[in-house]
Design goal:
Number of helices of chain B: 10
Strand order of the largest sheet of chain B: 6-7-8-3-9-10
Number of strands of chain B: 10
CATH class of the largest domain in chain A: Mainly Alpha
Structural class of chain A: mainly alpha
Strand order of the largest sheet of chain A: 3-4-1-5
Structural class of chain B: alpha/beta
CATH topology of the largest domain in chain A: MetI-like fold
Strand content of chain B: 25-35%
Largest sheet of chain A: 4 strands, mixed
Number of domains of chain A: 2
Oligomer: heterodimer
Shape of chain A: elongated
Number of helices of chain A: 17
Bound molecules: adenosine-5'-triphosphate, magnesium ion
Radius of gyration of chain B: 18 Å
Radius of gyration of chain A: 31 Å
Number of strands of chain A: 8
Strand content of chain A: 5-15%
């Protein structure tokens, strides 16, 4: 301690100041580097987990699908498997085989074919029995655990493709826990997200812009003094509360107005998201509008432009980049929003055909399913894949809006 | 009949009494200079005539301002119509971040004029009037922000002329300019007198002497003296005017 004091006394003040400055500089650099690195690591982690979904077989657990050796078919896609077990496909000719009807066999059917004595107390005769059963029925498709596969099986194990990027992105069915083959088509979720967000922003942007213009340019200062804090307050309300509001007010309203079986629809989600995005859009736009130099507005008015002409021709072009920032933030909020949307959209992971049907968004899916997906399973990884897609969508939108606003400014 | 008149005008910014009972009458096609120390109310007075003060919160205006025999503060006057007749050039050049062409065309466009040839014609005439044409005729489509300060100010003058006002208000139009640009603007004012009635605020006594027919001396919100420029500069009645023009204060 004393040493430090002596040191301080010895050093001239300017040197101490310099050292302090350097330390601060170092701290700032350190923290910004850490932040950047953290963000990068998160993205890296997300993509590493997400991409690993493509290394997984869609078959649940250790299951195998076994076909008779006489069957021409030896390869099935996971969609085909699902259709077969859903009994949508009932004949081998539809999946490239002979004209022969398909016989399903799962473990539940075991007792229909064999008595307990035949299988032995620990199922030790099962593999052999299974093998002969399959060979006796050329049209059979059996699914069972790998461990019951006979060592010298005559039947053949069908190869099933891993989840490919194409089936992942363009698949229309999302049944991550389906048996025997999971269906991981995320197209309905992507479309659900895009529909809801786009409609939300289409509602929120004009209203937000109009409100911001009113508050910034038209309203009496006293009115502004009331409106602005109220709108800012709206931004602080937790999203569950919005969701609750949507569930109680908007959902029944939509159900009644459009005479629907259920009110939990994409439209309800879009409206709630629009309301949630409004405060951000309004405050950011309003700030941008108010940043227009007074001299620009005066120049326009002095040339005989009306107030509206001035707003349209001077104020809005001048704040274009601020307005697009508001749009980005609004879209960002809409796309990433989870809770409220989860509450009001009905959560049906089906291809959305209209906004008056239940649908499901990517964040809602992740939030709802992550808890029940076994860690490192295919479902779990697929949810990470969804996270990657969400990330990419937001990034594309950001870049897109950015280029639009740049073009506007340059003109 | 006078072109412009103010009768017993009082203006308050909130509780601050900025113009105190101003009476002034200005003839058509003359140049009137407003002089006086900083903060005496010259800009405020100038901005009365295109109702720019209306934009400021808490402004209270009493008395009457008349242009072409009509009270401009009456309810029946449309402010944007008034501002088309009363153009203004500001102290600091304030071109729009648009092209040179669009800056000059702005007033025409907000007036609903869409005829392309007419607009092109007006832009050229006004840029010539403002002595800027030769310098910018090859870069009309370039941004006005790339011009020098003096060029920008002349552009603002051209912009004000485009809608053919009958009155031109100029608030220290040459204060930010070099002597050559200043001389160009003074020359311009001299020529514009033929067509316009001009009121110009200036801190430059020589400039007031050179360009104006009449001069008004303001002091602390009062109009101390208003007379021909010659009289004000050679034989002022009020001792405060005398002190100001001889540089004893201000
Ligand atoms: N918006 C305003 N709010 C309150 N007071 C103002 C406002 N504008 C001007 N004033 C006050 O009114 C008085 C006159 O201002 P004005 O701008 O007319 O002066 P000026 O003679 O043009 O001065 P300068 O030569 O410096 O431009 C000043 O005392 C100023 O402080
Ligand atoms: Mg002034």
């Amino acid at each position: 301690m004393r040493l430090l004091l002596v040191l301080v006394k010895l050093l001239p003040l300017t040197v101490i100041k310099k050292v302090i400055n350097k330390i601060f500089e170092g701290l700032l650099m350190f923290s910004s580097t850490i932040t950047t690195l953290t963000v990068l690591l998160i993205v890296l982690f997300l993509f590493k987990e997400g991409i690993s979904v493509f290394k997984e077989s869609p078959l649940e657990g250790e299951n195998v699908i076994v076909l008779s050796n006489q069957n021409k078919v030896s390869h099935l896609t996971s969609v085909e498997v699902k259709k077969i077990f859903d009994q949508e496909t009932t004949n081998w000719k539809f999946v490239g085989g002979a004209n022969d009807s398909i016989l399903l066999f799962t473990f539940n059917d075991l007792s229909n074919y064999f008595s307990e004595e035949e299988l032995g107390p620990a199922f030790e005769f099962l593999p052999n029995k299974m093998d002969s059963l399959i060979e006796a029925n050329p049209g059979i498709i059996a699914v069972f655990s790998k461990k019951y596969l006979d060592k010298n099986h005559k039947s053949k194990v069908a190869t099933i493709d891993n989840i490919s990027p194409k089936t992942f992105l363009l698949g229309k069915e999302w049944f991550p826990t389906a048996n025997p083959a999971v269906q991981l088509g995320v197209l309905p979720l992507i479309l659900g997200t895009l529909y809801v967000s786009i409609v939300a922003i289409l509602i929120a942007l004009p209203i937000g812009l109009a409100t911001a213009i009113y508050i910034a340019e038209v309203a009496h200062p006293k009115i502004r003094a009331i409106y602005k804090p109220v709108i800012e307050l709206l931004a602080g309300i937790p999203s569950v509360v919005y969701g609750f509001f949507g569930l109680i007010v908007i959902v029944p309203l939509i159900q009644k107005t459009f005479n629907l079986p259920v009110g939990e629809t994409g439209l309800a989600g879009a409206i709630i998201l629009a309301i949630m995005a409004l405060p951000t859009i309004i405050t950011v736009t309003e700030d941008a509008l108010r940043n227009t130099p007074r001299s620009m507005k005066e120049a326009s008015l002095a040339l005989g432009a009306t107030q509206w002409q001035t707003i349209y021709k001077v104020v809005i072009p001048y704040s274009a980049s601020g307005i697009s920032a508001a749009a980005i933030l609004g879209i960002g909020r809409a796309i990433g929003e989870t809770m409220a949307v989860l509450m009001v959209t009905g959560n049906a992971a089906v291809m959305p055909h209209s906004l008056l049907e239940p649908l499901r968004t990517i964040p809602a899916t992740i939030a709802a399913e992550l808890g029940e997906a076994p860690a490192n399973g295919i479902h779990y990884k697929a949810l990470f894949g969804l996270g990657c897609i969400l990330f990419i969508i937001t990034m594309i939108i950001n870049i897109w809006v950015e280029t639009i606003s740049k073009r506007r400014v340059n003109r | 009949m006078y072109k412009i008149e103010s009768k017993n005008v009082n203006l308050h910014y909130g509780s601050f009494h900025a113009l105190k009972g101003i009476n002034m009458a200005i003839e058509k096609n003359t140049v009137t200079a407003l002089i006086g120390p900083s903060g005496c109310g010259k800009s405020t007075f100038l901005r009365l005539f295109n109702r720019m003060n209306d934009l400021i919160d808490g402004v209270k205006i009493e008395g009457s301002c008349i242009i072409d025999g009509k009270e401009i503060y009456s309810k029946s006057i449309k402010i944007d119509e008034l501002r088309k007749r009363v153009g203004m050039v500001f102290q600091k050049p304030n071109p729009f971040p648009k092209t040179i062409f669009e800056n000059v065309a702005y007033g025409l466009r907000v007036n609903g004029i869409t005829h392309k040839n007419y607009i092109e014609e007006r832009v050229e005439i006004c840029l010539k009037q403002a002595a800027l044409w030769d310098e910018v005729k090859d870069k009309l489509k370039k941004s006005a922000m790339a011009l020098s300060g003096g060029q920008q100010q002349r552009l603002c003058i051209a912009r004000a002329l485009a809608i053919e006002p009958s009155v031109l208000l100029m608030d220290e139009p040459a204060s930010a300019l070099d002597p050559i640009s200043t001389a160009k603007i003074e020359e311009l004012i001299y020529q514009l007198k033929e067509l316009y009635t001009i009121i110009i605020v200036t801190h430059n006594m020589q400039q007031a002497g050179r360009v104006s027919d009449s001069t008004a001396f303001f002091y602390l919100g009062e109009l101390v003296e208003f007379d021909t420029t010659k009289k004000i500069f050679t034989n002022p009645t009020d001792v405060r005017t005398q002190n100001y023009i001889t540089g004893r204060f201000g």
